[in-house]
Amino acid sequence: MSLYEQIQRLITKVMKERLEEIKTPIAELTDRQPEAPDYHVDHDDIFEYVKEKGPPYEHSKPEIMKHFFGRVLRSRGSEAEQKAYRKLRSQLNKVRRRLEREEGGRWKGFGVGKSGTVGYHKVYRLKPKEENEEKDRGS
Predict the structure, then answer these.
(1) CA-CA distance, 56 to 127, in Å (whole number)?
(2) For a Cys staple, 39 with which of 19, 44, 84, 120, CB 3.0–4.6 Å?
(3) Which of 86, 87, 80 is nearest to 38 (CA)?
(4) Which CATH architecture has domain 43-138?
């Protein structure tokens, strides 16, 4: 066996050993599932948060998300984020309907920021019933 063949066998042996050493940590890393953030928030907690603001109960989805999750969720984010976004939107709609029944009035959304930009969002305010009736009579 030539010196060249001996060196090549030694290199192959060392590379195989090194590869086995590397494979083990990689397998351990891929077996673990990343922890999904906790996006759970109770309907009553959202209701209390909006109710504590007092009339006109002004709020926005990004504000609610920052309060409960510490950041704004995206409707096109990860699967867990999308699910949480849709659930929060649904809960917020229920909260608004509940406040409409309890306080009387209608919700009005106002765009904030430049439409079509990243910072654009709607702010919602509950308009009292009397204000809505005056508009209907005046029209």
Answers:
(1) 7
(2) 84
(3) 80
(4) Orthogonal Bundle (1.10)
Q: Coil, helix or strand for 2?
A: coil
Q: Where does 70-128 show beta strands of DSSP type E?
A: 106-112, 121-127
Which tokens hold the place of 64? 């609610």
Q: What is the pLDDT of residues 89-98, one digit of tens each?
A: 999 999 999 9
Q: Which residues pair with 60 in a beta bridge?
A: 123
- The Cα 68–Cα 46 span in angstroms is 9
Q: Please provide the size of the chain in residues.
A: 139
Model's pTM, two decimal places? 0.64
Query: What gap in Å lies between CA 121 and CA 130, rounded to an integer?
Result: 27
> What distance lies between CA 127 and its chain's CA centroid?
28
Residue 46: partners with Cβ closer than 8 Å, 6 or more residues away: 64, 68, 88, 91, 92, 95
Per-residue pLDDT tens digits for 1-26: 788 888 999 899 888 888 777 766 65
